[in-house]
Design brief:
Keywords: Signal. This protein is mainly β and 367 residues long. The protein has a domain of 245 residues: 6 Propeller (Neuraminidase), CATH 2.120.10. 5% of the residues lie in helices and 40% in strands. The protein has a five-stranded mixed beta sheet, with no helix packed on it. Strands 2-25-24-23 form a four-stranded antiparallel beta sheet, with no helix packed on it. The two termini are 40 Å apart.
Length: 367
């Protein structure tokens, strides 16, 4: 009896030490819809059951009725080195009337490369009337931390996420876009309600700042909130709720550390006037892509938040209670490779892109 009680105690202790993460038998399978994609990065759903997909090497593709198109013509040249390339894609909320799409990518020029934003009309395998809406300055010769996610919110504002380009101190400088999340009107102008619109010392497009490298942005359909996630250094990947004008702390505060060990700056995790993450990972999972789920295809998943993990090649499901992360579940671990993007389709299913040289588009289906 004593031995049985000891085993029971140890079993309970192991569950407590394991925290909230669950690694259960997967209730879903990933069905490949198309392959042959070169490091796919982002996707956008169009009204006619068509999906646009960016490839980091610089191609924009279309998938319709299970068929992958030839590269769409008219895409601007990209700086496809390191983490750079063709990144985010989004469709205008009124796409069916105006055929407008948006692309974020790393573009090269005098002084190096930076994140750029363009708008174009998409019609029959071609981009027309291309307009450059924004170029992040200054440019740098580094090839990492471009950010590059795009999102329209419920009011029709367009968000562009950026990274610090390896120049971490600039993320606290309001006069540039480095380490910021930007907000635009759909045609590229600055909304009157942007928090720094009337600050002559600040970039008017800035909505939030103090980010390291934001590679996930999602709209919570239940309340209209915009959430992001960003890569930490060694540890300290974060999920954040965006608040107009807020400072998210990088590099002054972080739950990560230097690669190889050691504190960043003064080693602070909190400071007055800087936002705390809603959730963070240590060790890092290298998050990429994010979506809230509000469909009915998967039992018990309505209201969950989904995040791709590059480092652990898995999909993470986060259970939310009162706007906070209450539990974490790992799915598809080491089954389809590095998950770069996850989005809910108009049909209520979740769709995934895996960041591989022979990458693909997958649909998540109940087992």
């Amino acid at each position: 009896m004593k031995k049985y009680c000891l085993y029971l105690y140890l079993g309970c202790l192991c569950l407590i030490l394991a925290g909230c993460e669950v690694r259960s038998a997967s209730p879903v399978t990933a069905t490949k819809l198309v392959g042959g994609l070169d490091h796919p990065w982002s996707m956008a759903f169009l009204p006619n059951e068509e999906i646009l997909i960016t490839e980091r090497s610089g191609q924009l593709r279309s998938v319709q009725k299970g068929k992958l198109s030839a590269p769409i013509q008219g895409v601007p040249p990209v700086f496809a080195q390191g983490q750079g390339g063709l990144l985010g894609v989004a469709a205008h909320p009124n796409f069916s009337e105006n055929r407008l799409i948006y692309l974020a990518y790393s573009g090269a020029g005098q002084g190096g490369a930076s994140t750029e934003l363009v708008q174009a009309q998409y019609q029959e395998g071609q981009l027309n009337n291309l307009q450059k809406l924004f170029v992040s300055l200054p440019k740098f010769k580094t090839s990492h931390h471009f950010g590059g996610r795009l999102l329209f919110d419920q009011q029709g504002y367009l968000y562009l996420t950026l990274g610090d380009r390896g120049q971490q101190d600039l993320a606290q400088d309001l006069s540039n876009s480095i380490g910021g999340v930007l907000r635009f009107n759909a045609e590229g102008s600055v909304p009157e309600s942007n928090p720094f619109k009337n600050n002559p010392a600040a970039l008017p497009e800035l909505y939030t700042y103090g980010h390291r490298n934001v590679q996930g942005i999602a709209l919570n359909p239940s309340n209209g909130q915009v959430w992001t996630h960003e890569h930490g250094p060694q540890g300290g990947d974060e999920i954040n709720l965006l608040k107009a004008g807020a400072n998210y702390g990088w590099p002054v505060i972080t739950y990560g550390e230097q690669y190889g060990g050691g504190p960043i700056g003064q080693g602070k995790t909190q400071q007055a006037g800087m936002e705390q993450p809603l959730h963070y990972w240590t060790p890092s999972i290298a998050p990429s892509g994010m979506t809230f789920y509000n469909g009915d295809k998967y039992s018990g998943w309505n209201g969950s938040l989904f995040v791709g993990s590059l480092k652990f090649a898995k999909l993470v499901r986060l259970t939310l209670v009162g706007g906070k992360v209450a539990a974490e579940e790992s799915l598809l671990e080491n089954q389809i490779g590095r998950i770069r993007d996850v989005q809910q389709g108009p049909d209520g299913y979740l769709y995934l892109l895996n960041d591989e040289a022979q990458g693909g588009l997958y649909r998540l289906e109940p087992s």
